[in-house]
Structure formats: structure tokens, C-alpha cells
Amino acid sequence: MSETRGERRESDRGVRLALPCLLLATLTLAAACGWSRPGGGPRPVAKQPAATSRIPVEKYFPLTPRSHWTYRVLDLAKKWTYVNKVQVHGPKYYEALGGEGIEVTERYSSEGGPFYVEESEPIIYFRNEGFLHRMFMTLQAGKLVQASGSGDTRYLPVVLDDGAKWESATQAFRVGGGMSGLGFNVSHRHSAAIETKAVQVPAGSFEDCVRIDTYSTQGPGSGKNGEEIVFYYSDWYAPGVGLIRTEQWDDARREKERTRIELLEYEVAPAAREPAAAEKTS
Length: 282
Hints:
The chain is built from two helices and 18 strands. With 282 residues, it is mainly β.
């Protein structure tokens, strides 16, 4: 298979949410807001309260224990389809982090192309200095340890403002030293806005979404022929649900779409203080 794990991670950056794909145990997570589809009827539009200018990120990125999401990932360049399943396990102390974080597992499997791919990846989300960060993990001697320095810094602000702008970075595998040929750094510039229209995906139609537009680059000379590798993204997060859609393009005009990620189904569990059962949609 010609595509490396690091290359797929950069191509599928939007899935790293839900999941999409979260918080330290000290962060109060919002209760779930889910929608059900009446049997045989049209998919409903999710009615939400009017968006405010300052939004706690847990409202749009609620990773409560036992929550899970299923995504379809379309690699339009290679004409491959992946299914990404995201499962939240809950808060725990991690030696690699030196504190508590939320453990999430992403499982990828392919649905076409010349190769069958199946991969599982544990991720730890944690909060520091006003941002959510994520660390990619691997299992060694029965313990989760950081996967060769891989992760995302400043993944999302703890408080989202309409019109907010910030920068972040992704490191896939280890960059520098004797392993410099096995990894890369990617710089991102983000801007957030409240989406004025409902966003339609296979899991339903959602209003009051936050759209995050991202410009990503590996820097000058990062391409095989010395060109700069640049990608453009838009991610849509629905209140009480999380990531519902990602679109990725090769060009600023957004004419050459490379990857599309859409939510197929989900179950967001309520926070521990809520006794009600989780609501489902499919």
C-alpha cells in the first residue's frame, strides 16, 4: 500500500474529533442533544437554541464516556472509501500525559480500492492553556504510550467565538533526529463561524453548526518536486453531536475536492450527572 499512516492522518484530519472525536475530568461535559428519525419518514432538521457569540467547546465536541460515532470517509483522489468508528472510553490518568485525559479509539476499515485496510488508533484528549490538545498513542508492554511524538496541539479552543482565529500544529510520527525521514510537521490556520444554513449528512440535518475553515501547509519545499504542500478544509460541528462533516480541497478556490467525511450514525451519552438514557440516531 503506497499511502502511509501519517499521510492518511493528514488527509483525514477532520475525523480527529468526533471526533471528529475529549476533555480532562475537570471539564464539565454537556449533556447530549440527539435526534431520532421517525421510521420511514424524512430526516428531521435538528432544532437548537440560537447560537451565542461565546460557545463552550463541549457543546460542539461532547466526548462523554460510551458515546460513539460512525463516519464515511471518501478519498476522492484514490477513489477509496473508509469507515471510521469513534468510541469514547472516558477519563483516566496517563503517565505519558502526566495527568488525566479522555481516551478515544478510532477504528478505520476500507470499503474498496486494491487493498483492505483495518486499523485501530487510541487517542488521548486533554486540556491545557485554553485549548484542547490530542495525543496519538500506541500500546507497549500493556501500557498506552505516545506514538513517536505524534499529536495535535491547540486542536480546538476551550471557548469558541464566532469569528475566532487561531493556529495549531500536527506532528505525525517523530520529526527530527535519526527518524527525520519518517514524519512531518503540519501548520494550520483556523477561523470559526456560525453556519447560517442547516447542514445535511446521512445521519440527519443539523442547524446552528459551527464551521471551522482551515488552511494547512507542510511548508515550502515539502512536495516531491520542491513545491509547497497545501490543503484547505471545512469542518462542521453540530451542537450536542460533534463533528458531522468535513470537506478537504487541494486548491483555495475549492474546486479540487480531495476528501469528504460525513456522519452516518451516532450515540451521544449524557454526562454522568444525567440519569436519562442515551438517545440514538441511525
